[in-house]
Amino acid sequence: MRNYFWLIPLFPLLGFILNGGFGLWQVARTGNRPAKPFVYCVACGSILLSLLLSLSCFIALLQLDPHDRVWEFELFRWIHGPALQTVTGDLANFHVSWGFQLDPLSVVMILVVTGVGFLIHVYSIGYMADEEEGFYRFFAYMNLFMFMMLTLVLANNYLLMFVGWEGVGLCSYLLIGYYIDKKSAGDAAKKAFVVNRIGDFAFIIGMLMIFTYFGSLDFTEVFEGVEEMFPTPETLWGPLCWIALLLFIGAAGKSAQIPLFVWLPDAMEGPTPVSALIHAATMVTAGVYMVARSSAIYSRAPDVLFIVAVVGICTALLAASIAMFQNDIKRVLAYSTVSQLGYMFAALGVGAAAAGIFHLMTHAFFKALLFLGSGSVIAALHHEQDMRKMGGLKKYLPRTWWTMGIATLAIAGVPGLAGFFSKDEILWRSFSNPEGHLVFWLVGVLVAGMTAFYMMRMMFLTFHGEERLSPEVASHVHESPSVMTVPLVILAVGSVFVGYLGLPAWLGLGPNVFEQFLEPAFETSYHGAGESVHAAHSTEILLTLVSVAVAGLGIYLAYQFFLKHKEKAARLRERFSGLHSIIYNKYYVDEAYDFLFVSGGTGWGRFFGAKNWGRFLSAFDNNVVDGAVNNSASMTKFVAWVSGLVDIHFVDRMVNLVAETFEFFSTVLRKIQTGLVQRYALFFVIGIILVISFYLYMGV
Amino acid sequence: MVDITHYLVLSTIVFSIGVVGVLTRRNVIIILMSIELMLNSVNLNLVAFSDRLQDPSGQVFAVFVITVAAAEAAVGLGIIIALFRNKATVNVDEIDLMRG
Amino acid sequence: MEATLFYILATMLVVFAILTVTAANPVRSAVFLISALLCMAGFFFLLEAEFVGAVQILVYVGGIMVLFLFVIMLVSVREVEGQRRANRQWKTALVLGIVLSFELVFFVVQGAEVFSADIIDQQFLNLDSQTGNTETVGGLLYSTYLLPFEIASVLLLVAMIAAVVLTQKRL
Fold first, then answer.
1. What is the pTM assigned to this prediction?
2. Which class would CATH give B4-94?
């Protein structure tokens, strides 16, 4: 087993070559596509083989002593480079091998990737059944993607990981743009690739810096070098911080964090299995994996860790706020993915890498399930994706309904399901770790409430309530075939049970097994980073109860707004229409980027052309300079007019704004004075409860 | 064995029942009665500690609480009668003259 | 024996308290409160505070609750059936009540070890088993707590005057 685990990425590669090559040859020769069963067997079979091999490697790994659980295998020496000088003055050979490494962290990743990937491949058989022309291309690209992703997580050096990194970006481009006759799909694919590239640029520079400082790109050698050269964390901003920051920018591009998240919602143009596989379960988690793998570096760069946590939690908040108002079902899920990735990065940023990976694993299950379920809905409604035209689908699509229901409850953090354990672990760590902070926890709990709210909103709008289907769609609605619903069921089972691998310690059932398993992978990190907040299990239980209560509140609010009194939602939307349209239009981030970089870029380019420059200068001279001289009187009038304008529109507005603010607040606050004594008594009791809670918090 | 924690927990429960009563009922007389419940739970607390610490001061305090409760009940009921004479209702949520 | 009595009285007290708070008819509510107060008196007797127990029965039940019943009969002449019992905020209030009780119980249970420590008894009066409870309390009341005692009597005077003034037909 030890000598064969390199086959894990190879099976999908063979699948790609077989399906793609044979398919192309067949089309060139006869004009027909290859037989569908052949394509399906090759594609799914290769992933199944990888999955089985991954499972046996995992079992074999478990037999070993925890400290021996690292296997390395070099396939061949890829780059024989010259000797270059490093920062320390030594000469180091730029040798890079095509080598693989299997340790607890990568075995978790390959199990997630092959497991969820296999189910998605099976599902795609049903989803893409109507495709006549491009289905072999689809499955070939999916297999290529699996090859690249598995290479990424099994690589034993940064450059091979980068090969996988770029490869999954390429496959993402190919698969988002699968519908080649839709211009929007092509644009989305280009956008994904270009934004990824920005991150990759930073990644490359980071890699080069790593080589310059540590003389190698192999993980083992680099991390040993880090331990030697930086025994304690950097207190000032030094080279390790730069390396960490650059690598993180790469991760932000790949995993859709601020400011490089804009490609993910557009990536929903691709077929739904692509969204499930690439943009929920695997590719976007590559950034998280990379930061976790490099924890030796990050744990010694506390300033960058803080940036990672801040970016993560802000992204989580921003994306959750946008998701609350989207009408397209896939967009809601896309922003939800961005938000959950933000959680994972927040976990990494507070030094709880195991918690981040745990959430990665549970998230893969329920997010893939949600996407596949939404695909089932979309297919049943003949590609209708707007939730405003859905409703009452529960009786037509029962299996889809209950599996998606489980996934929704899991992501909302309902106790007992997978998402509860992983999300609570992250929230607890963001509060209690030395690098953590109360604000991280508060924002995290807020986002948890928002998550519960928008996910239940999605469920209620889609499956419950009155039917808003258009008539021709309503006549064809039926449940999806088993090849699509069986993976949903399997993923639903996973969403419930996979969380039990990481039961928290306070339940009294032993230590967190998942964290223990991942311990050896983080051996090279810097430990002992100060005292954590002296917090007992009871505080953890209290915080858990608070987050469950907030999630319950989110579900209750969604129920009120979208099931019981839908008029309330419409009325609130009108009252706050300005704020609503800002968030609905995703804070105009895309428009800003477009203005600054896209058309701005082309505009600036044209502007700085030589011909234009001459024209610009002469125009400036004629109109402005001569004009000023000749027309000083009218200039004065003009200036006076401008200042009058400023006075009326700016100054007066400011004054009025002050008055209006007071008026607004008083209108709001007046409502507290109801004149009913019992209402005042209620506030009393709330205050008492808060004071007692404060004492409990201080004392316990 | 019944130790003091039992009494304290009982006192807490009765107190909370009183609180819920004050916040929930519309009839103002029942609100007053819930307040009496709360006062009694406090008395139980005092006397329990008095027994635990073998110090009669707790019982003295309890007697004072009963005294004050009597005074308060008398005045409160007087106010209710005056209110009833003016408004012909004893439902506290129909009285919102101080509404802002 | 003591434990059995405690649990019986405690169950009765809690049941009567809940019934007090939830009964529709104010007269019923008053009767339940009387029962609850009698259970309370039972507790006082159990805790060897006979004086307080007796005062509870005489003053609280015999005085205050009778006053309540008088006023109920003065005021609730019409039928109160058919009207809503609880106001609009009852769900919130119930939740808050539960939260409050959980928090306080948590508080108490957390600090249980403080109460179980052996406390050196500091006694105000020398107690021997011959002195009755009433005598002890009376002694304290007239020595250390004399000032509060006098003020309490002034308070009762004020309450009497207030009750008379408030219920006058013309001020």
1. 0.70
2. mainly alpha
